[in-house]
Amino acid sequence: MEYFVDSGDKPAFVKYPMISVFLLAFLFILIAIEITLSAVNRVLYQLLTPEEKAKKEYEESLSFKESTWFKELMQKLTKTSPIEKEGELLMDHDYDGIKELDNNLPPWWVYLFYICIIFGVIYVVRYDVLGADNQEMELKKEMAQAKIDVEEYMKTAPDLMDEKTVVLLTDEPSLAAGKEIFTTNCAACHRADAGGQIGPNLTDDRWILGGGIKNLFHTITNGGRDGKGMISWKGTLKPKEIQKVASYILSLQGSNPKDPKEAEGEVWVDESAPINDATAVAPKTDTTQVKK
């Protein structure tokens, strides 16, 4: 009942009282059947002749391996010959006084051997002739599909976002929500215009712990430098909220607020950004070399 009934963290018979009633009724039926069968067996036993009673008592006194049905079952599974007929099965081979009996192979072994042959033929045809996926290929495909499923799930599960999967938001609703979060939680240290006060200026091109959406998400989530950085916000803000406020902060780059705090940190360059060939600086040529 526990397997088939979804009862959450409580036992099924506790959460659903009708299950207890059903189990009690089922137990009552089993007891009634047992009493009925016992009564029928006693009546049938009284109808037996003395010889049949003696035979029945003898069979009930036998051990499990000595019972008739067990012997018949083993005979069907092994097809062994009685020990009295071993002389007929004795072969001419003699190895240092050790002789061999020509017994039949057990039927279970023979059937298993035939099943292995059929399985081997099907296996060769399927995997070597028809080219079906083997276990290694099936694993690779399942892992690739699982990766796709995880990525799709992460897109619709923002609370599972981290610095590896976060992306920059540029739509107005997200930036507006990020601004509200910033004003409520961050403006006290960074000023409402992000020009910096206790905390650093967030509008210039210098960053203490790295710029970009991934670094900024990591910093807000886990906090700044030990002992002198800001606190971790992962216990207060959800990952989706951290993504929005980080995107809003990055949208303030170059806004030049009034009386900004002096720049701190280093200029951060996104190494993953594509290089513009047109703006690449050509290497300088040494014009002092003597032509040969």
Automatic annotation (TrEMBL):
PROSITE patterns given in the database record: CYTC
Chain intervals for the UniProt region annotation (Disordered): 253-292
SUPFAM superfamilies for this protein: Cytochrome c
Keyword tags: Heme, Iron, Membrane, Metal-binding, Transmembrane, Transmembrane helix
InterPro entries per UniProt: CcoP_N, CcoP_N_sf, Cyt_c-like_dom, Cyt_c-like_dom_sf, Cytochrome_c_Oxidase_Subunit
Residue stretches making up the Cytochrome c domain: 173-253
Transmembrane segments: 21-40, 108-125
The protein, known as: Cbb3-type cytochrome c oxidase N-terminal domain-containing protein
Protein source organism: Flavobacterium chungbukense
